[in-house]
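FAQ

Q: What does a record look like?
A: Structure on top, sequence underneath. For example:
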């Protein structure tokens, strides 16, 4: 590996194999984040009244370059769930409309659509996609079995949280565009884990986290909207960015509605550029390749313990995060707690479609000893929890 452990603030006593949940920020990026906070506190009036527009523009364009997008087509937000809320609450959906999703989606974002469907009367439907995933063309066809004449929106993850699988977003978005269906993509786990070209992907709305695999500070994410659909967006929080006769502060209603929210600490947004620079300084493509190889080792070790095969057709189907099936266990939460209490392994155990899985994330700070600790813990504890 690349000996990056000292670059992160994580507890060295913990085998931290759960980067996927909240990420981890390198020391230089965290220092830049704190420097922005101190700069704000030194002269808050000047910062908010005179400087913030240029700082936000610079940060947006740095992120947009990384994502192969236009900086005026994306806005910073606290997290991807926030982004889903912005889009879902803006769309004028009613009783004659349907929103189609899969059975792999993140619970908080599922809740957004369920909540609004009860308020507005539209139908929120899940189309089952099995595990192991079939090929891309079959996934698209399976998803399209749920499309009806009432389908107005497709909502799905790029890389799912619960099952860590990657959907063929570009193919799905292209077919949806032909059918006149809007696409809303939850890319919470994609930025920094896989290369992203938002222009090529073609999603109408794409929201992603910077605080996960991009390693920016917590509370940094983005919402990208194609120019043709930006007029659909309404402010989630109404403030100075909306109002009759106002002068545009950031150049468009889309940016004003979503960036002009009143007093807020935006330091995490400004430090996104530092996170991108950290990756560049540490040859991150090579780091990611090493992480992928280590994750393959972890998956092989888990399979040897459980005698259950991988769900992925080939190593190209996952990047730095993957799930492995576990045998039927009595209490997944109790097993997770014991892995931490006895072995200091931080790793999530999930249940999907009544099947238990372990989700392993490998980042540049992880080492083979982390994987061995996980393997030993599972070997010792699984017999105690297997039904």
């Amino acid at each position: 590996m690349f000996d990056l452990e000292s670059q992160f603030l994580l507890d060295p006593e913990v085998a931290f194999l759960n980067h996927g949940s909240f990420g981890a920020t390198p020391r230089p990026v965290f220092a830049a984040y704190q420097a922005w906070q101190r700069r704000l506190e030194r002269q808050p009036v000047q910062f908010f009244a005179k400087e913030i527009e240029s700082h936000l523009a610079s940060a947006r364009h740095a992120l947009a370059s990384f994502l192969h997008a236009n900086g005026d087509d994306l806005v910073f937000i606290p997290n991807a769930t926030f982004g889903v809320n912005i889009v879902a609450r803006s769309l004028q959906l009613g009783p004659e409309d349907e929103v189609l999703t899969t059975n792999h989606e993140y619970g908080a974002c599922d809740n957004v659509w369920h909540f609004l469907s009860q308020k507005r009367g539209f139908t929120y439907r899940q189309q089952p996609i099995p595990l192991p995933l079939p090929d891309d063309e079959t996934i698209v066809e399976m998803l399209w079995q749920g499309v009806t004449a009432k389908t107005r929106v497709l909502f799905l993850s790029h890389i799912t949280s619960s099952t860590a699988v990657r959907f063929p977003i570009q193919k799905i978005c292209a077919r949806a565009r032909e059918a006149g269906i809007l696409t809303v993509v939850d890319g919470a786990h994609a930025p920094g884990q896989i290369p992203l070209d938002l222009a090529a992907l073609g999603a109408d709305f794409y929201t992603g986290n910077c605080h996960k695999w991009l390693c920016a500070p917590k509370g940094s994410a983005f919402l990208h909207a194609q120019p043709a659909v930006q007029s659909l967006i309404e402010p989630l929080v109404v403030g100075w960015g909306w109002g009759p006769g106002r002068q545009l502060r950031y150049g468009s209603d889309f940016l004003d509605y979503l960036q002009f929210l009143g007093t807020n600490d935006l330091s995490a947004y400004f430090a996104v550029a530092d996170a991108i620079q950290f990756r560049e300084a540490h040859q991150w493509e090579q780091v990611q390749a090493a992480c992928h190889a280590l994750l393959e080792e972890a998956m092989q070790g888990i399979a040897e313990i459980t005698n259950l095969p991988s769900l992925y057709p080939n190593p190209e189907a996952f990047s730095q995060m993957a799930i492995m099936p576990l045998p039927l266990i009595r209490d997944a939460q109790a097993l997770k707690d014991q892995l931490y209490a006895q072995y200091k392994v931080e790793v999530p155990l999930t249940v999907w479609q009544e099947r238990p899985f372990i989700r392993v994330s490998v980042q540049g700070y992880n080492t083979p000893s982390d994987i061995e600790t996980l393997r030993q813990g599972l070997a010792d504890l699984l017999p105690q929890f297997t039904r």
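Q: Is there anything notable about this one?
A: The first strand starts at residue 15 and ends at 16.
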